[in-house]
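During the first year of the project, the team set up a workflow for recording each protein of interest as an amino acid sequence followed immediately by a discrete structure-token representation. This format lets reviewers and collaborators read both layers of information side by side without switching files. As required by the reporting guidelines, we include two representative entries from the current panel. The first entry is reproduced here exactly as it appears in our internal archive.
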Amino acid sequence: MTDLINARPERMLSVRELFGIDSDLEVPAFSERDDYVPEVDPAYRFNPDVTLAILAGFTRNRRVMVQGLHGTGKSTHIEQVAARLNWPCLRVNLDGHISRLDLVGKDAIVIRDGMQVTEFQEGIVPWSLQRPVALIFDEYDAGRPDVMFVIQRILERDGNFTLLDQNRVIHPHPHFRLFATANTLGLGNLSGLYHGTQVLNHAQIDRWNIVAKLDYLPRQEEIEIVVARVPAKASERGRALIDAMVAVADLTRKGFATGDLSTLMSPRTVITWAENCEIFRDPALAFRLSYLNKCDEAERPLVAEYYQRCFGEELDESWMREASAS
């Protein structure tokens, strides 16, 4: 895809064949890949409802937001759909350091014919708007208010974007697509889990055409993903170990839901635990280093109980004595 601005999807693909979802929907796709297309992860497992929501964004130019707890794979889900469509994709993390100038653009000094001149450098928003790019605003609910109002301009159906400093109106490329991910859906840090998230303007949330919720995978699918990420655990013994690890993770999520725990195990944490098992050759030690030490001290005995229930053995006795003493 040598000329990105003039590129267009050249073919239609069956959702049933591409994602194994029982749907007659066909989605546009590019024939060639370029440097902006994410790499395909063959181990990734797609949530059917969320996949259809994202595909609606690609097919019908809907603004799609994916909401869910950390570690559910929200941004990766969008990227992996784009990867299978060969659709160029850019991901912007709206942390506190992203400014309005980063999104819109700013004047910069450049060298032209051996002389320094001031030239306007487009930000990521106008650059993406003019190309068939899927732009993902990651951690959408952590964006600064001045940054969020810049984004609000392109959430409308027409989505024209005005560069005030340039007296220029940018009309979106017909195959520009916009996505976002969020932990809290703009409600702020009510759970105490996501410090730095903002309460978002409801008028802006209302402009998102589709909001999909992504939960953690069913237990067996999570086991398969962990095994795919850590192939050394593909044996019968390894799978039994991963099964017990995912069982611990399930208990932490239920404990979090009932208010007994303030820190849950995401699938990312389970994968880290499995990887650390390969390093330390001790599931209990790897568990402490991967997850337990992140927990509040008052909650660690309960977490140790979860471990004992799933593994049939106590954690290291010295650690238990330290926990009791504290």
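The second entry, processed by the same pipeline in the following quarter, appears below.
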Amino acid sequence: MSRPPLLELPHGARAHRLPTARGPFAVHEMGSATRGTALLIPGFTGSKEDFIGLLEPLAHEGYRVVAVDGRGQYETGGPRDENAYAPEELAADVLAVAETLKAEHPLHLVGHSLGGLVARAAVFRDRTPFASLTLMSSGPGAVCTAQQSRLKMLLGALPVMEMEDVWRAMRELDPPEAADDLTPPAVAEFLHHRWLANVPEQLIATAQQLLTEPDRTAELAELAATGMPVHVLSGELDYAWPVPQIDALATAIGARRTVITGAEHSPNADQPQQTAQALLAGWAVPAR
């Protein structure tokens, strides 16, 4: 999961609920769309807070920045029905948010990890609202074998255990560098609170998607061939999709490729200033 380095919103940002045709979504928003709008989609067990470090540097450069909790994530909520979180449903949510934003200037879509799978599904369904697609720490298909094992354990636990008990079990499986005693107390408390707020059926459905997602390299290559800028961005290390696999995806589809120094699976949280600059550079590239 992403561990945001800070939780306080920068001056000028606001938390609110964005109404859409598919219901309201909890968002963090900052800036005016002088140059464009950025829509940021979080990953598995993540939330809009994972992008707090990006809000100010992107807004400062003239972008309206909207980070969203997806259906069933943290403060958005959702039904206790796995079918509500099928890939096509989550893609439709992204398109509904895009429609509500009604961007007069370019609308840039950024998906982190699972959010990358959701974002690309939305663009495959309808690319017209979007000026670019950035896949952040998101690979061609299903996650790597090690993560598949962890997800299968989670899928076994969620239907039969309380969320609090699952949380404790997950913490015991964390690597030493992720230990709570190395995480600031306020952030550790937030991560616990966020986990408990997630809808279990959303976690089950999206974990299954991470396990079974087909390789979409061919579809992404077709998308890039239409002229839409596609940016593949990651840290130097990644536990969900090996970096060489992410490199190969970018090469195969002819995408812009950026590796964020000093970052791992969550460059948006690990190195937000570098990540913001990389996003800005990608958005400056005109469509072919």
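For the second entry, the following points were noted during internal review. The two ends are 35 Å apart (CA to CA). Strands lie at 14-18, 25-30, 36-41, 63-68, 107-112, 132-136, 230-235, 256-260. Both points are flagged for discussion at the upcoming steering committee meeting.
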